[in-house]
Every structure is written in structure tokens, then in C-alpha cells.
Write a structure and sequence with these properties.
Layout: E1 5-9, H1 15-32, H2 39-47, E2 53-58, E3 61-70, E4 74-82, H3 91-105, E5 109-115, H4 120-126, E6 130-134, E7 138-143
Helix pairs in contact: 1-2
């Protein structure tokens, strides 16, 4: 499915939206992983590498967040969250496919980590990501383009 998504740099005025998005998308995964579900913890994650945060919009409606780090030979997806009301429409898949395509053009690998309790790992596997490492709560995944 093709989407015309817009990306813009997150601003301080977006923090309330991002905090609400994080609480709605991650609380159940944190709870099932026995991690903190407090607003304070969520805010720390929102502010983590905030300068790399991009608000994702579809038809001028904010639908999510993408934080990505471009390094010399890798593209690291730090955070990708789609609002629950917009999930299941292929937006996340479309974003990932675009990232993979761009990485392939520059011969970079794509990496990410995902909580073991997060069903998004199935999407990542379908797109070709392989588990390369894990810790108590997360899988580290990589896709060689």
C-alpha cells in the first residue's frame, strides 16, 4: 500500500503528543516485560536523542514518530511508533520498506531493537530482519541490504 507520508522535525511543542503516543504504544509491552510504565520513564524515552525525532503525518494528521540514526555503514532505527488508531494499515511497513530501500542504495545495513513481547518483531522478520543478539528484554535485529 502506498502512502504519502510527511516527516518533520519534532519540536518542544510536540512533547505532549509524543508522550501520549509512547504511553499508548509501549505501556503494554513494558508491563509484560516487567519494565517501568511510569510517565517519567516514558518521558525519558521521548527525550532520548530527541534531536533525531521526526513526527510522521498522513494527510496533515499526526500518526507517529520515527527516530533514526544514520552512521557510516548502518542505519539504526531507534524508535518507530504508529498511533494505535492508525496501526494495521501498513504505515509502519511502508516506512520500513522506504528505510530499507534507501539503505540498500547506499549499501548500508539496517538495525533495530524490539522488546521480546512486541508483536512488531514479526513484521521485522517478514521484511528480512534477523535476530543477531538479545538481552533480557529485547532482540537486536539486523538486515543486510
Amino acid at each position: 500500500m502506498n502512502f504519502t507520508l510527511q516527516y518533520r522535525e519534532a519540536q518542544e511543542s510536540d512533547i505532549d503528543f509524543l508522550l501520549d503516543l509512547r504511553m499508548k504504544t509501549m505501556t503494554e509491552h513494558y508491563a509484560s516485560s516487567n519494565l517501568s510504565t511510569t510517565k517519567e520513564f516514558a518521558l525519558q524515552r521521548v527525550l532520548y536523542q530527541f534531536e533525531k525525532a521526526r513526527i510522521i503525518s498522513l494527510n496533515d494528521h499526526q500518526v507517529g514518530l520515527l527516530k533514526i540514526d544514520h552512521a557510516a555503514d548502518t542505519v539504526d532505527i531507534l524508535q518507530l511508533q504508529i498511533h494505535p488508531d492508525e496501526q494495521g494499515r501498513g504505515i509502519g511497513k511502508s516506512i520500513l520498506e522506504n528505510i530499507i530501500q534507501e539503505a540498500a542504495l547506499s549499501q548500508k545495513t539496517v538495525s533495530l531493537s524490539v522488546l521480546k513481547t512486541n508483536k512488531a518483531q514479526k513484521l521485522y522478520a517478514r521484511l528480512g530482519f534477523k535476530i543477531i543478539d538479545e538481552d533480557e528484554h529485547s532482540y537486536m535485529m539486523k538486515l543486510s541490504t
